[in-house]
Specification:
- It is a single chain.
- By secondary structure, the protein is an alpha+beta fold.
- Helix content is 18%, strand content 33%.
- The chain contains 13 helices and 38 strands.
- An eight-stranded mixed β-sheet has the order 11-9-12-8-15-17-19-20, sandwiched between helices.
- A hairpin with a 4-residue loop joins strand 34 and strand 35.
- Helix 2 runs antiparallel to helix 4 and helix 9 packs parallel to helix 10.
- The longest helix is centred in the first third of the chain and has 21 residues.
- The termini are far apart.
- 55% of the residues are buried.
């Protein structure tokens, strides 16, 4: 069966790209907050947003925050990553506070990029349009989805013969889910996530098996089960399927499956010439999935992400698209995002997100090496790959031949894994250059066509990536030369600026038990409600301990160390209180007269990419300590046994190269109002007030303009209306130190 996925094809697998873009353009450099004509350059686009929210009562939008942003792979230190994520979190909180008078629902707070996804009413949209901290506003619109002969055509089988078939690499498939029980894909799905949406305003329903808007783990990304949901299984098979008689391009690669589609009904489908119900994917769900892929680096060696998704007609790049920031972030750590160009048959335009300059856009050719009639092509297109009559897996254990740029893109995704298996350190730029320089040049011979682009040739690209062979020379005298690595390992560099006050020195801490492995994940969290009465510490420890600081983001390892001096075993409950709210609780048994190490970043604990506070409760007195390791340094502190209303810290500095953070853990069920007073060197005070949600952790960046500000030497006093725990962390150079406050 041959199925052509052209624009307007029946069902959501029609990879024709449908899009209703409504951008409030980015703030140009140097533009003042009050210059509305520059800040939102197209009044018609603003009017479109306003009209939609007035007509429908609510509107889903993705907003970019006016905070500095650099893709994390380009930052020089783990501290810089942590500081940027914290700035993003604080900016998100500030916007949400300014929206309190309106009806606004937070859809998602992105962790790695300065964006928020919101659903707002007319008043909320007006608030966002007037907010000087908002750089751009875009409607969160839904998009549709856009082997036996094609694999030898691009030379993948020749690459296999050389020993490179993607082993040890993973490819992520953002699509309609993957049938991992199919013989072509059996045992190949290494991780699964579902990112889907229920929205009454948009007539959408989540397709996650658990009925929620997010699900992670086994079974989360199973194909979604309505018309169109076969698409992801077909795409995954092209990229990395493995069979007895034919296989996908990277037959030995692992698949990370992300289901990003939702079920829609009524006008949302029929307005796009699709039958109802249909499947479409919100931009915000795609960004959520891309952030999830970014967080899988500690477990998988990820070569590329495949997005056979999109919409629109763009003759040039579309770098105002909110997906660019996370695509840039993935690219900064060597992960390419491969996107199908669309099936509308344009000879001078491609769809979004393929038009993002940092994505790798792919058009379709036939097996006779001519441009497919349905393929979008433009001057910004990167590559061609076979996309006509491609046989691959579909749910239920069978195979079908489909056509579309959706089928072309996974050929490139699989090729990326093959090439990375031969050159693991190759950058996105290097692999793209190899594919571009060695591919067969195909000209668009359709009416009006004028663009020529390379159709990938994997075996030739493999040779192009190989390092040059050294020529052996015979010398009468043996010489010993030291071998240097061709790619030096980057080390964080910091400006060494003298302190006006006593120079803080990092405390050296003993490495945690088993070799600590820093798990990438960050979340800030406070612990559950405390006992306000301060009780004396029992002999041999305490039954209750608190720690305000904790982070498991990239490059950071947090370890909770428990000493049980008793003869018998201790049962301890560890509660992680997350930044922004939410708790995760775990139970452990600590044998008598032993030490016990908890790796907070493990999946069975708080997990990776978490900022949190910790509460430990034991049935017998124990001692609790926390160690953190990062970059070339680390710090350590003993816990505190009870919260209090007042806390003091004598040290604090926000000069160049130094970051001071006040961490507050609120273990109470209700919110805490805290007053932070900075006492300056030489005299003078600066006071700020904060609200810390119940059972959460809260981070104050002392150097922010709204706190004590930069270049300040100070002490700190924290007063709260309910008992809390206060800690201070300082980071500088390649190290840092930390202490619990005194009360």
């Amino acid at each position: 069966m041959v199925r052509v996925l052209a624009a307007l094809a029946i069902g959501a697998m029609a990879a024709g790209f449908f899009y209703a873009s409504s951008w409030a353009g980015p703030l140009p450099a140097g533009t003042g907050a009050g210059d509305r004509s520059l800040r939102f350059r197209n009044a018609a686009e603003v009017q479109t947003l306003t009209s939609k929210v007035q007509r429908n009562g609510s509107l889903r939008v993705i907003v970019r925050l006016d905070t500095g942003f650099v893709p994390e792979g380009e930052l020089k230190s783990y501290l810089s990553v942590w500081m940027q994520r914290n700035r993003i979190s604080q900016a998100q909180e500030a916007v949400m506070k300014r929206l309190q008078a309106a009806t606004a629902q937070t859809i998602y707070r992105f962790s790695h990029i300065p964006y928020l996804a919101l659903e707002v009413d007319a008043q909320g949209l007006a608030t966002l349009l007037a907010d000087p901290a908002i750089v751009s506003i875009k409607e969160d619109v839904p998009s549709s989805v856009s082997l036996a002969e094609s694999v030898p055509l691009i030379g993948a089988d020749a690459a296999w013969a050389s020993g490179f078939a993607g082993a040890g690499l993973a490819v992520a498939i953002l699509d309609t889910g993957v049938d991992g029980s199919h013989p072509f894909l059996a045992g190949k799905v290494g991780a699964e996530g579902c990112f889907s949406t229920t929205s009454a305003a948009y007539s959408s329903t989540t397709l996650c098996p658990n009925g929620l808007d997010e699900q992670l783990g086994g079974g989360a990304a199973i194909n979604c089960g309505i018309t169109g949901c076969e698409h992801g299984t077909h795409v995954a098979g092209i990229a990395a399927g493995k069979g007895d008689t034919f296989s996908g391009v990277a037959r030995d690669a692992t698949i990370l499956a992300a289901q990003v589609f939702s079920r829609f009904e009524g006008a949302q489908c029929t307005d796009l010439a699709l039958s109802s119900p249909c499947i479409l994917s919100f931009t915000s769900d795609q960004i959520r999935a891309l952030e999830w892929v970014y967080g899988q680096q500690s477990t998988f060696n990820i070569a590329a992400v495949n997005m056979s998704i999109g919409s629109g007609q763009y003759t040039g790049s579309c770098d105002s698209d909110p997906r660019k920031a996370i695509i840039d972030t993935l690219r900064s750590v060597g992960i390419a995002t491969i996107v199908s160009s669309g099936n509308s048959g344009y000879v001078d335009a491609i769809g979004a997100p393929a038009c993002i300059s940092s994505a790798i856009s792919v058009g379709s050719t036939t097996k006779s090496d001519v441009v497919s009639s349905f393929s979008n092509v433009s001057t910004v297109l990167d590559l061609f790959a076979p996309g006509s009559s491609i046989l691959s897996s579909v749910p239920g254990g069978t195979y079908e031949a489909w056509s579309g740029t959706s089928m072309a893109a996974p050929h490139v995704t699989g090729a990326w894994a093959v090439l990375k298996s031969e050159q693991p350190g190759a950058s996105v730029d290097a692999i793209l250059a190899a594919l571009t320089s060695t591919g067969m040049l195909i000209g668009d011979g359709r009416s009006g066509g004028s663009v020529s682009k390379p159709r990938i040739q994997v075996d030739a690209a493999l040779l192009a990536l190989l390092p040059p062979t050294a020529t052996a020379t015979v010398s009468s005298t043996a010489t010993v030369t030291s071998t240097t690595s061709p790619i030096p390992t980057p080390t964080p560099t910091f400006t060494d600026t003298p302190l006006p006050t006593a120079t803080p020195t990092p405390t050296t801490t003993l490495a945690a038990s088993a070799t600590p492995s820093a798990t990438s994940t960050a979340v800030v969290s406070p612990t559950p409600s405390p006992q306000p009465t301060q009780t004396p510490v029992p002999q041999g420890g305490s039954t209750q301990w608190y720690l305000a600081e904790g982070y498991t983001g990239q490059g950071f390892g947090t370890y909770i160390l428990i000493q049980n001096p008793n003869v018998g075993a201790a049962t301890v409950e560890v509660t992680y209180m997350l930044q922004g709210g939410g708790v995760v609780s775990r139970q452990h048994v600590v044998e008598g007269q032993s030490r016990y190490t908890i790796v907070a970043g493990d999946a069975g604990e708080v997990g990776p990419d978490a900022a949190f506070s910790t509460k430990v409760v034991s049935d017998v007195p124990v001692i609790v300590e926390r160690a953190m390791y990062f970059g070339n340094g680390g710090h350590n502190t003993i816990g505190v046994t009870a919260p209090a209303l007042e806390w003091y810290l004598a040290e604090g500095y926000t000069g160049q190269g130094f970051g001071t953070y006040i961490l507050i853990q609120n273990p109470n069920a209700g919110a805490a109002t805290v007053e932070v007073t900075y006492m300056l060197q030489g005299g003078g005070v600066v006071s700020r007030q904060h609200v810390v949600e119940g059972q959460s952790r809260y981070t104050i960046v002392a150097g922010d303009a709204g706190e004590v500000g930069p270049d300040a030497a100070f002490s700190t006093k924290v007063v709260s209306d309910v008992p809390v725990i206060v800690e201070r962390a300082m980071y500088f150079g390649n190290g840092g130190h930390d202490t619990i406050a005194v009360r």
